[in-house]
Amino acid sequence: MVDRLANSEANTRRISIVENCFGAAGQPLTIPGRVLIGEGVLTKLCRKKPKARQFFLFNDILVYGNIVIQKKKYNKQHIIPLENVTIDSIQDEGDLRNGWLIKTPTKSFAVYAATATEKSEWMNHINKCVSDLLSKSGKTPSNEHAAVWVPDSEATVCMRCQKAKFTPVNRRHHCRKCGFVVCGPCSEKRFLLPSQSSKPVRICDFCYDLLSTGEMTACQSTRSDSYSQSPKSSLNDVSDDDDDDEDSSD
């Protein structure tokens, strides 16, 4: 079906509409062989609070952006090559339901669908696209992925020292290796993680010690682990601050 749609006029028109919705700030999406598989609104678990994002699944990339005007205008376009994607289901917990992890070497995050059926359809289509891409390229699935950041709301104290309380003065920071919410003194060091940045990034002391001694896999955590270790949360108890999950400084 994908091959049949690849060069069809209907597919070209649909992709052109998506391009126009992102405007001049978005990257061109029309290339030979690319097919728009589906689209929809998913709730992305951001650093500050859950946010509705518009997602577009193509046969080779996953694109998402902020909703400015539904079905008319989006901004802050993100493009994720599907060859680097792995996904894992998340168990329902409170208001956080019908979710799964989207994991890549550079960025990983959780998303939630409105219904279980919608979740199943998204996951099945993503897995099919990834499988087809890897089959054609002969590559193996990526076994490296960035940690999923624990949302700010899930940590009132530093997740490493368990002592420092967060206040407007004592800010929350995120370790780029394990994704934990940590205080400044527990995350003063930097380490080069080439898959995430060309410059050394903030990591916690625990991960720094493991990385420095070569025990890299020991400090890799997953979002599922973080759910079981952190306090219960809901879509209604998070901060009203603006979404700042792309900020590389914290």
Task: Outline the structure in words.
The structure is a single chain. This protein has two domains: 1-144, PH-domain like (Roll), CATH 2.30.29.30; 150-211, Zinc/RING finger domain, C3HC4 (zinc finger) (Herpes Virus-1), CATH 3.30.40.10. The chain is built from five helices and eleven strands, in the order ααβββββββαββββαα. The chain has helices at residues 2-5, 9-22, 116-137, 205-212, 223-229, and strands at 36-45, 50-58, 61-69, 73-81, 86-90, 99-103, 108-112, 173-174, 181-182, 190-191, 201-202. Residues 218-249 have low confidence and may be disordered. May play a role in early endosome fusion upstream of RAB5, hence regulating receptor trafficking and fluid-phase transport. Enhances cellular sensitivity to TNF-induced apoptosis. GO terms for molecular function: phosphatidylinositol binding; zinc ion binding. It comes from Grantiella picta.
